[in-house]
Amino acid sequence: MLEFRNVTVQFGGLTAVNNLSFIVPENSIYSIIGPNGAGKTTTFNCISRFYDINSGDILLNGVSILKSKPHEIVNLGITRSFQNVELFPSMSVLDNLLTGMHSVLNKNILAISFNLKSIRRSEQQAILRAYEILELLEIRHLAEEKLENLSFGYQKMVDIGRALMTKPKLILLDEPVAGMNPLETQKISEFISKLRHSLEITVMLIEHDMSMVMQVSDFITVINFGEKITEGLPEEVMKHPKVIEAYLGEVVEHA
Questions:
Q1: Residue 244's pLDDT band (boundaries 50, 70, 90)?
Q2: Residues 66, 71, 77: CA angle, nearest 5 degrees
Q3: β-pair partners for 57
Q4: Which residues are CB-contacts of 102 (< 8 A; sequence separation ≥ 6)?
Q5: Which end of the chain is more exposed for a tag (fewer CB within 10 A), N or C?
Q6: In sequence order, what DSSP letters do the residues of 69-108 get, joined into one string?
Q7: Which residues contact 224 (CB under 8 A, 6 or more apart)?
Q8: What is the DSSP secondary structure assignment for residue 101, as one 8-state letter?
C-alpha cells in the first residue's frame, strides 16, 4: 500500500533518515521501532508531508505523494495521531472528534451562513460518525466531558479517534500507548487489531512498548541513526543481534 523508496532526509549537516526503504502491505499492522532519535517520527513526518525529503520517493498505491501538501494528505486517505496530544482541552470529547472532519467538509461560507439543509445534514452525519468511533473506543459515556478532565490515556484515545473521523485507508499512530497504564495499553492494543480486522484500515505504528509491538504487529522495520537495521516478522526481528545491540548496547562475548 505504501512504499518508502530510498528516502534520505537531512537537516543542515544532520542526516535524520538515510536511504531508507520499506513496503507496507495493505490491511497490515506495520511497526517502525528503534532507539530514541533513530528517525522514526521523522519518517512519519515525511509521509504526512510535514517534512520534505532530499532524495527518494514515497508512494501510496504506486503513486508518488511528494507533490501533495500536508492538508491534502487526508484526502488521499492518510491520517495520524501524534506523540504529544494536539487537542483542545476546553472542548468536549465529542467536539474534539468533530474537528477531525474540518478538512473534508466542502461547504462554502454562504451555505454555512444560511444554515442550509445540506449543512445540517453534513453536521448530523459527522456527529453520527463521532459516536460510532466513541463506541469503538468504548468511551461513549465521555462524549460530553471536557478533554482537560480526562487522564492522559483517555486523551490519547480521543486523539486516535479524531484521526479516524475521515474514514482513512492508512493511519499513522505515533506512540499511541505512551503514558498509559497496563489496562489502557491492553485496550488500545485490542483497538488497533480491530482497526485492521473490522475496519480494514492499514496501520503504521511507532511504539516503545515492545510487548505491545510484538502482540499487534504483522511486520516490523527497525531503524537506528536513520538507517534500517533489519525488517521482518516480529519473532525474527526481536532475535536479531543488531536489534539487541541497538537497544542494549554492544554485545560483549566472554571467553
A1: confident
A2: 75
A3: 5
A4: none
A5: C
A6: -GGGGGGGTEEE--SS----TTSBHHHHHHGGGGGG----
A7: 34, 35, 38, 242, 246
A8: G
In the chain, the amino acid numbered 28 is S
φ, ψ for residue 69 (rounded to 5)?
-85, 160
Q: Count of residues for the chain?
A: 255
Residue 84 pLDDT > 50: yes
3-state secondary structure 124-175: HHHHHHHHHHHHHHCCHHHCCCEHHHCCHHHHHHHHHHHHHCCCCCEEEEEC
Q: In one letter, which amino acid is 58?
A: I
Residue recorded with cell 489496562 = 183
Q: What is the pLDDT of residue 104?
A: 52
Euclidean distance between CA atoms 133 and 142, whole angstroms: 12
Which region among 14-23, 26-35, 122-131 has the lowest average model confidence (pLDDT)?
A: 122-131
Q: Give the confidence band of 248 by pLDDT, cuts at 50, 70, 90.
A: low
- Quote the CA–CA distance of 42 and 16 in Å, as a whole number: 7
Residue 92 per-residue DSSP state: B
